[in-house]
Amino acid sequence: MRIVLVGPPGAGKGTQATRLAEKLRIPHISTGDLFRANISRQTELGKLAKSYMDAGDLVPDEVTIAMAKDRMAQPDAENGFLLDGFPRNVSQAEALDELLKSEGIKLDAVLDLEAPEDEVVKRIAGRRVCRKDSAHVFHVTYSPPKQEGVCDVCGGELYQRDDDSEETVRTRLEVYHTQTEPIIDYYRAQGLVVTISAMGPVDEVTGRALEALKSGQ
Ligand code: AP5
Ligand code: MG
């Protein structure tokens, strides 16, 4: 399956993507995680991305699209992928469409995770991610690690993302509404959008997502 996951910051895209990717046996491709990996390796791309991410703004399309294309070209993505955080505006969606068209393939669904703003703010405030791999995500109250400050998956140190400060979250939410939400209409016109509530326990949301993907609604 080829799926795009969309939803406001903190809705649980990364949390759900990890589980869905495992169940559906497709790679989880998160542009946010790819940028954070570049930041920790101190690459040129990481340095560029950090200045935008810390401000809560989108990283320029040119570098983002090139990075996403590169990742989608890896052999593990040949038969499907779950995109988390990409595309994030209409021009990225158009670039993705062009790429898929050139390869004669299509998206199967765009899974839209809905969560109210007060909930996403609470989720982000308590989020802790792993320094070694930001796809390993915890929450101080909702999904605490077994040992405080230590990643259950790989033993890495847990920290609060630099862009999870109150001020940056406000900008990220605004950017989501103005730049990312329009892609939902873009994909709705293609009949691809499946909207589910992201509220409730993590496993329940995963079950809801799998059901919705199966029935296409
Ligand atoms: P990115 O890393 O994609 O951040 P985001 O979209 O803002 O989303 P988050 O990762 O904050 O939230 P999430 O929905 O994944 O929630 P999570 O599962 O962690 O992007 C960061 C930045 O990179 C962007 O601002 C931009 O600068 C740049 N960027 C990335 N992609 C780009 C692109 N395509 N173009 C340009 N720039 C790009 O969950 C949140 C918390 O809630 C966790 O603590 C989790 O444990 C908890 N939680 C999850 N589910 C539940 C539940 N059901 N109940 C209770 N708690 C829950
Ligand atoms: Mg995420």
From TrEMBL:
<dbReference type="GO" id="GO:0004017">
    <property type="term" value="F:AMP kinase activity"/>
</dbReference>
<dbReference type="InterPro" id="IPR006259">
    <property type="entry name" value="Adenyl_kin_sub"/>
</dbReference>
<keyword id="KW-0808">Transferase</keyword>
<comment type="subunit">
    <text>Monomer.</text>
</comment>
<keyword id="KW-0547">Nucleotide-binding</keyword>
<feature type="binding site">
    <location>
        <begin position="10"/>
        <end position="15"/>
    </location>
    <ligand>
        <name>ATP</name>
    </ligand>
</feature>
<dbReference type="InterPro" id="IPR027417">
    <property type="entry name" value="P-loop_NTPase"/>
</dbReference>
<feature type="binding site">
    <location>
        <begin position="137"/>
        <end position="138"/>
    </location>
    <ligand>
        <name>ATP</name>
    </ligand>
</feature>
<dbReference type="InterPro" id="IPR007862">
    <property type="entry name" value="Adenylate_kinase_lid-dom"/>
</dbReference>
<keyword id="KW-0545">Nucleotide biosynthesis</keyword>
<feature type="binding site">
    <location>
        <position position="92"/>
    </location>
    <ligand>
        <name>AMP</name>
    </ligand>
</feature>
<comment type="function">
    <text>Catalyzes the reversible transfer of the terminal phosphate group between ATP and AMP. Plays an important role in cellular energy homeostasis and in adenine nucleotide metabolism.</text>
</comment>
<dbReference type="InterPro" id="IPR033690">
    <property type="entry name" value="Adenylat_kinase_CS"/>
</dbReference>
<feature type="binding site">
    <location>
        <position position="36"/>
    </location>
    <ligand>
        <name>AMP</name>
    </ligand>
</feature>
<dbReference type="InterPro" id="IPR000850">
    <property type="entry name" value="Adenylat/UMP-CMP_kin"/>
</dbReference>
<feature type="binding site">
    <location>
        <position position="31"/>
    </location>
    <ligand>
        <name>AMP</name>
    </ligand>
</feature>
<protein>
    <recommendedName>
        <fullName>Adenylate kinase</fullName>
        <ecNumber>2.7.4.3</ecNumber>
    </recommendedName>
</protein>
<dbReference type="Pfam" id="PF00406">
    <property type="entry name" value="ADK"/>
</dbReference>
<keyword id="KW-0418">Kinase</keyword>
<comment type="similarity">
    <text>Belongs to the adenylate kinase family.</text>
</comment>
<feature type="binding site">
    <location>
        <begin position="85"/>
        <end position="88"/>
    </location>
    <ligand>
        <name>AMP</name>
    </ligand>
</feature>
<feature type="binding site">
    <location>
        <position position="172"/>
    </location>
    <ligand>
        <name>AMP</name>
    </ligand>
</feature>
<keyword id="KW-0963">Cytoplasm</keyword>
<feature type="region of interest" description="NMP">
    <location>
        <begin position="30"/>
        <end position="59"/>
    </location>
</feature>
<feature type="binding site">
    <location>
        <position position="127"/>
    </location>
    <ligand>
        <name>ATP</name>
    </ligand>
</feature>
<feature type="binding site">
    <location>
        <position position="200"/>
    </location>
    <ligand>
        <name>ATP</name>
    </ligand>
</feature>
<comment type="pathway">
    <text>Purine metabolism; AMP biosynthesis via salvage pathway; AMP from ADP: step 1/1.</text>
</comment>
<feature type="binding site">
    <location>
        <begin position="57"/>
        <end position="59"/>
    </location>
    <ligand>
        <name>AMP</name>
    </ligand>
</feature>
<feature type="domain" description="Adenylate kinase active site lid">
    <location>
        <begin position="127"/>
        <end position="163"/>
    </location>
</feature>
<dbReference type="Pfam" id="PF05191">
    <property type="entry name" value="ADK_lid"/>
</dbReference>
<keyword id="KW-0067">ATP-binding</keyword>
<feature type="binding site">
    <location>
        <position position="161"/>
    </location>
    <ligand>
        <name>AMP</name>
    </ligand>
</feature>
